[in-house]
């Protein structure tokens, strides 16, 4: 079967790899550099912990496949730091993890977080860890190999038996197409009569230096708002002696209409003040900034739709699930079925 995958972020590359391993004739089309948009950066957080038990189970499946990827790559792609969730949502998330290893703590003092006093409760997810993004990108680019091609797809025509793609490199007819093109997904989905949300917001993650370069704190999702009402964060090691902080700001502070520069400046000011006042183990000089746009309001849900010979996938926080999503999309594409992905 001839299959085109549009988009070479982590989901597109994972899908192309899974299709190739199943014997499909695959082309993966990317307008820019692979993993240069929403999949860019040095690190991501892997976690089993989710509010939805179905996503916990799906993350467990993804963790198994991350191990397979690591074996194929020859070195671990996910670290062993663990992950911690603090805040009032921790009890509900702990219930969602029933049947999976975790611990629930009323106090946070034993967790080696780089912060001053953080109120409990806390959920500890020992399966969590830091995903090595550059190593993952190198592994997937090698796995997909010559099937990866540079082309901007600007039109998709879905027929009863085939799909036709119009691109900067010409016309291409295939039996099936999978579109995992980030912010470009909605335009191609519209050609097939599929609605994909078009709203976007700005987000910036900042990297700082740990005062102890040998420290390796757990990945941390903080929902306590202990520093300032409405201010929540995710944090993780992003390299030796480096600590990255991403803040979830009020919607009006991340709105697309504010512009990238204004949101970046506002985020930088808040996050630096937070680091100075709340993270004594972290220096406040910004070493690096990672910008991305994202579809607001989607949370951890994985969204997909199929119209004829085309399947579309979109969402937020998908990186951790990438091996499982790619495997499910490949299996469904070749079988003509519905991807085995939890309903969003």
Automatic annotation (TrEMBL):
Q: Which InterPro entries match?
A: FAD-dep_OxRdtase, FAD/NAD-bd_sf, MTOX
Q: Is the keyword Signal assigned to this protein?
A: no
Domain FAD dependent oxidoreductase: where? 2-331
A Pfam family per the record: DAO
| Annotated protein name in UniProt | FAD dependent oxidoreductase domain-containing protein
Q: Which GO terms describe its molecular function?
A: flavin adenine dinucleotide binding; sarcosine oxidase activity
**Keyword Transcription regulation carried by entry:** no
**Which keywords has UniProt assigned to this entry?**
FAD, Flavoprotein, Oxidoreductase
Name the needed cofactors. FAD
